[in-house]
C-alpha cells in the first residue's frame, strides 16, 4: 500500500494518490470469520484513488460518499462533502480478488491524508475502520482488509468476531509469478455469507468437512511457501479448490472447464479465489516459464472462452521484509 502526497496552495486540501493492492486467497475462504487458517497473498494489481481539484462529487450512493460519512463520524473537522476523486484499478472487478475492499481502503487512505486534521491514520486503525465499514454491510470477515493493507503473504487465524489474527508472515518467493485467469463471469455471492451462517447455525456436516479440509490445505500452502516448493504449493491450492467445490459448491462448470484447459495446455493448476459463483482463478508458475505458460493458456482459451483473460502479475511487496 502506498500514498503519494503533494501539498496544494495554503487553505486547500492536499493532493493525494493512494494505491492499494488486491489479494488472492490461496486457501481458506470464509475461515477468516468461521475460524481456522487461511492464506492471503497481496497482488501487484493496484487500485488507485487520487484526489483532484474541483467541486465535490454529486452524491450518487457509491462508496465514496459512504466512506466519507463513516469518517465524519470518527474524525472531527471534516467538511460536509468529500474531495473529488479519480479511481483506477488494475484488477478485474467482481472477480474474488478483493477489488472492492482495495477501493474502500484506498478511499479511506486518500480522504484521511487529504483532509484529516491529523493525517496519517495508523495501519491497524485503518484496518479496523475498513473492516467495520464492510461488516456493517456484508457481515463477513476481515481477511481482505489485512491482506491489502499489510501486503505480502499472510497466514491468518480466523475469529468469529473482528479481524483475524496474523499468525505468520512470509516473503513470497521472487522467482515465482502469479497468473490470474479472469473468467469474465461475475462472481455471485449476494447470499453467500447468509447461507453459510445458516449452515453454521444448523451444524451442517458439509460445512464442517469444508472447514477441516480447508484448514488443512492452508497449512500445506503455508508450508510450501516457506519451503519454496512450487509443486507442493500447486497441490495444496488444488486441494483447497476441490474442497471449495465439493463441500461448498463455490465453483461453476465454466470455472471447472477453465481449470481443465489450463492444466492440459500448460500444466498450470488453478484455484478459485473468493467465494465463487464466477470470478477469477489464480495459479503460480516459475517466472522463467511465465511467458510460455501465459501464451499456452491464452491459446487454449481463445476459441471456447474469448472473453476470458490471462493476467500475469506478481506478489505485491511486503514492507515487513
From TrEMBL:
Superkingdom of origin: Bacteria
Record keywords: ATP-binding, Cytoplasm, Kinase, Lipid biosynthesis, Lipid metabolism, Magnesium, Nucleotide-binding, Transferase
InterPro entries: GHMP_kinase_C_dom, GHMP_kinase_C_sf, GHMP_kinase_N_dom, Mev_gal_kin, Ribosomal_Su5_D2-typ_SF, Ribsml_uS5_D2-typ_fold_subgr
Domain GHMP kinase N-terminal: 84-152
Domain GHMP kinase C-terminal: 224-301
PANTHER family: MEVALONATE KINASE (PTHR43290:SF2)
The name this protein goes by in its record: Galactokinase
Organism from which the protein derives: Streptomyces yaizuensis
Amino acid at each position: 500500500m502506498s500514498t503519494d502526497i503533494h501539498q496544494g496552495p495554503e487553505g486547500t486540501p492536499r493532493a493525494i494518490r493512494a494505491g492499494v493492492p488486491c489479494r488472492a486467497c490461496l486457501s481458506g475462504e470464509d475461515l477468516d470469520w468461521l475460524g481456522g487458517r487461511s492464506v492471503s497473498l497481496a497482488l501487484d494489481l493496484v487500485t488507485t484513488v487520487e484526489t483532484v481539484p474541483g467541486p465535490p462529487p454529486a452524491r450518487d450512493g457509491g462508496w465514496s460518499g459512504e466512506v466519507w460519512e463513516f469518517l465524519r463520524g470518527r474524525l472531527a473537522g471534516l467538511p460536509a462533502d468529500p474531495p473529488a476523486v479519480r479511481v483506477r484499478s488494475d484488477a478485474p472487478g467482481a472477480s474474488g480478488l478483493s477489488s472492492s475492499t482495495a477501493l474502500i481502503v484506498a478511499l479511506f487512505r486518500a480522504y484521511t491524508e487529504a483532509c484529516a486534521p491529523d493525517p496519517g491514520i495508523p495501519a491497524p486503525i485503518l484496518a479496523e475502520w475498513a473492516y467495520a465499514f464492510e461488516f456493517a454491510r456484508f457481515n463477513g470477515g476481515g481477511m481482505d482488509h489485512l491482506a491489502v493493507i499489510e501486503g505480502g503473504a499472510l497466514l491468518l487465524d480466523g475469529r468469529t468476531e473482528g479481524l483475524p489474527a496474523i499468525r505468520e508472515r512470509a516473503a513470497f518467493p521472487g522467482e515465482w509469478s502469479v497468473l490470474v485467469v479472469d473468467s469474465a463471469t461475475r462472481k455471485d455471492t449476494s447470499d453467500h455469507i447468509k447461507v453459510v451462517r445458516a449452515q453454521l447455525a444448523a451444524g451442517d456436516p458439509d460445512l464442517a468437512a469444508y472447514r477441516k479440509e480447508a484448514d488443512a490445505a492452508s497449512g500445506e500452502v503455508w508450508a510450501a511457501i516457506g519451503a519454496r516448493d512450487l509443486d507442493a504449493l500447486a497441490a495444496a491450492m488444488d486441494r483447497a479448490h476441490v474442497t471449495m467445490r465439493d463441500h461448498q459448491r463455490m465453483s461453476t462448470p465454466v470455472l471447472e472447464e477453465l481449470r481443465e484447459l489450463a492444466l492440459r495446455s500448460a500444466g498450470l493448476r488453478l484455484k478459485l479465489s473468493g467465494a465463487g459463483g464466477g470470478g477469477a482463478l489464480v495459479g503460480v508458475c516459475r517466472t522463467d516459464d511465465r511467458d510460455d505458460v501465459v501464451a499456452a493458456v491464452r491459446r487454449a482459451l481463445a476459441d471456447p472462452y474469448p472473453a476470458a483473460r490471462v493476467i500475469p502479475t506478481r506478489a505485491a511487496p511486503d514492507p515487513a521484509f
